[in-house]
């Protein structure tokens, strides 16, 4: 399965590791790099050296309880880092839901848009339809500020699958080719522990067929709830979650710990007969 990401074409017949570059001041996992472009760029390059085959740059926190970031603040944090990473050799994804940020990032060389609102904001479909960038469509119930207060599902897997299928249809209707799309169940985005566990246990049933899947479990609270570990002590659980996501068909892993995840993926790939 191939994913078209601007000038890059990703062969997703084997798993790829996407390194998280958090440009917010209040990152949930203590990795915020908002105060220094140089530090953020150095971190991004270190992730590439560690084996990241995509990077995800985010300048607005979407952790539970996060308040929205202004357009100006998001652009001010994002663009210097994106511009400094031009020519880095791997596709740069931008974690944003604002069409204006999408347009500016695509003009500055971003190869993928990672939208936690799945292009539902006015103007978002048009902003990416004009490009040939990759697009990640993610499921979220509610919005970051309140999504974890009381998530409720009648049919979790069906609701996630139907939501994503509807967003795929909307994207295709806007002229966005299927080979540009990757889908994501949105671990921790309006999901209680039992919802996150059910998604991990039955991942294929939550996803419309025939499209690649991205999973982002790294350091998330579901792992803390299952292990009792604080956010900085969740690497073993994050690796276990990553491999379970691969078992469930995910082929892009969005992680903080690139080198460790690459090692876990190497073991998984060998056991699956992948080179
Ligand atoms: N496609 C995609 N993009 C993402 N961007 C983020 S930022 C993390 C926001 C957050 C932090 C912590 C919790 S919690 N309460 O579960 O620990 C939830 C959400 N994540 C993802 C993800 O998964 N996919």
UniProtKB/TrEMBL annotation:
Pfam families documented for this protein: Pterin_bind
Enzyme superclass (EC): transferase
InterPro entries named among the record's database cross-references: DHP_synth-like, DHP_synth_dom, Dihydropteroate_synth-like_sf, Pterin-binding_dom
A molecular-function term among this protein's GO annotations: metal ion binding
Keywords of the record: Folate biosynthesis, Magnesium, Metal-binding, Transferase
Pathway annotation: Cofactor biosynthesis; tetrahydrofolate biosynthesis; 7,8-dihydrofolate from 2-amino-4-hydroxy-6-hydroxymethyl-7,8-dihydropteridine diphosphate and 4-aminobenzoate: step 1/2
Documented EC number(s): 2.5.1.15
GO cellular component terms listed in the entry, alphabetical order: cytosol
Entry cofactors: Mg(2+)
Gene3D superfamilies: Dihydropteroate synthase-like
Catalytic activity: (7,8-dihydropterin-6-yl)methyl diphosphate + 4-aminobenzoate = 7,8-dihydropteroate + diphosphate
Source organism superkingdom: Bacteria
One GO term (biological process): tetrahydrofolate biosynthetic process
All residue ranges annotated as the Pterin-binding domain in the record: 15-266
Name used for this protein in its record: dihydropteroate synthase
Primary gene name: folP
